[in-house]
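for the recovery benchmark. tokens below, seq after
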């Protein structure tokens, strides 16, 4: 018997989860716990049509479908549309045609040489930083220069591990998997599994409260237009939110990487007993202290890595938040893939510096629409995406680097003012 969209929507609870892919209905209740991408990212689509997300995330959807066969429980009724009610069928169809074109033109295929050279420039930065100390010895100026070079290598390694986590740079995925662990573990001291499970949720439901961990501010900030009003009406005042655009500079960029992320990473590795990732992360700290202990001693080396993390953290926060924080934030609305991604992302103007500085995440729109696309192809697909958005009246925002950064502060101030107004008058 064919299922209706309404019947599928009822199965959206932790203990009862169905979803639809290509009109086929699957019961993922038990299997979600074994999902390689994590239980949360697939559970976010419970009760929905997940076709667009399924295609977007999997490099080889036909291979993955083999694992779905035992979970098949039926199909949508012939009278049911091929997408959830409320989605723009014409837009969904046109975006699928665009994706087919992207695949046909080979824009989802990575160039290993590009990523090899990128990895090479990261390793060169680290080697130069250490070489300066061996040749010239320690001084305040050389230590500061060394710190800047290490922070640059850390930031660039962050963008590279982001690539390895999303796509297959090598022909054999097992080598891509190992390279990802090497870059994020040995070069950065973090966890590949922690990053994957967290970041895929962000891509699945960007700027959706309770589903995107990147906007889980732990009551430190109120974000968007709706959350501040909700907090204000409930008289919630964990922080003086009308000053959040000011204290953001004290606890946002300086602390997100060296404090919040580091605590979360190690807590996750120990709680999940992820000993492989822990070994990779510890290899980073072992290498770091072996290299810099002769120059700075133990406490000096701790101070050095803390300062490097401090610098990297500012870089990371501004690059990632300028394309998301000023954008729309809401509760679940079950939009089509393109509309959902465009409402939560914007681009930063292309330039050689912007491409390098952001790891090509200045093409945030294209990256979110095609998360498995290698970064060197974003500029090729961008005009096609823009034309599709113009056809359907979907806003496609491009900002300067300066405006992107200043909009982060403006959005925090706007949200804080909304909270204060609701707190005092509603």
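predicted aa per position
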């Amino acid at each position: 018997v064919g299922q209706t969209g309404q019947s599928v929507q009822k199965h959206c609870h932790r203990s009862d989860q169905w979803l639809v892919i290509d009109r086929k209905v699957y019961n993922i209740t038990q299997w979600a716990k074994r999902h390689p991408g994590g239980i949360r990212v697939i559970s976010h689509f419970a009760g929905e049509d997940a076709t667009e997300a399924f295609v977007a995330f999997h490099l080889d959807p036909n291979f993955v479908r083999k694992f779905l066969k035992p979970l098949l429980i039926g199909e949508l009724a012939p009278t049911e549309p091929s997408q959830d009610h409320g989605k723009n069928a014409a837009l969904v169809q046109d975006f699928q045609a665009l994706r087919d074109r992207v695949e046909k033109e080979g824009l989802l295929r990575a160039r290993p040489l590009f990523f090899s050279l990128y990895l090479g420039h990261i390793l060169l930065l680290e080697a130069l930083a250490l070489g300066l100390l061996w040749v010239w010895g320690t001084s305040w100026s050389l230590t500061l220069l060394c710190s800047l070079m290490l922070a640059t290598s850390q930031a660039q390694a962050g963008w590279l591990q982001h690539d390895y986590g999303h796509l297959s740079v090598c022909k054999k995925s097992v080598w891509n998997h190992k390279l990802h662990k090497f870059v994020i573990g040995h070069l950065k001291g973090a966890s590949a599994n922690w990053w994957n499970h967290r970041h895929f949720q962000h891509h699945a439901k960007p700027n959706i409260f309770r589903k995107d961990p990147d906007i889980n501010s732990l009551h430190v900030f109120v974000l968007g237009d709706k959350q501040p009003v909700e907090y204000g009406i409930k008289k919630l005042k964990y922080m003086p939110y009308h000053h959040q655009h000011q204290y953001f500079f004290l606890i946002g960029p300086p602390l997100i990487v060296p404090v919040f992320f580091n605590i979360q990473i190690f807590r996750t590795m120990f709680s999940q007993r992820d000993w492989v990732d822990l070994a990779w992360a510890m290899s980073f700290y072992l290498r770091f202290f072996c290299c810099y202990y002769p120059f700075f001693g133990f406490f000096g080396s701790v101070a050095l890595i803390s300062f490097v993390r401090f610098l990297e953290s500012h870089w990371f926060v501004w690059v990632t938040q300028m394309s998301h924080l000023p954008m729309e934030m809401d509760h679940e609305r079950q939009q089509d893939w393109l509309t959902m991604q465009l409402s939560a992302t914007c681009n930063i103007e292309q330039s050689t510096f912007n491409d390098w500085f952001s790891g090509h995440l200045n093409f945030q729109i294209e990256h979110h629409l095609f998360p498995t696309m290698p970064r060197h192809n974003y500029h090729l697909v961008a005009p096609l995406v823009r034309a599709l958005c113009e056809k359907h009246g979907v806003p496609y925002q491009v900002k300067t680097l300066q405006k992107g950064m200043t909009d982060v502060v403006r959005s925090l101030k706007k949200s804080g003012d909304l909270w204060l107004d609701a707190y005092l008058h509603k």
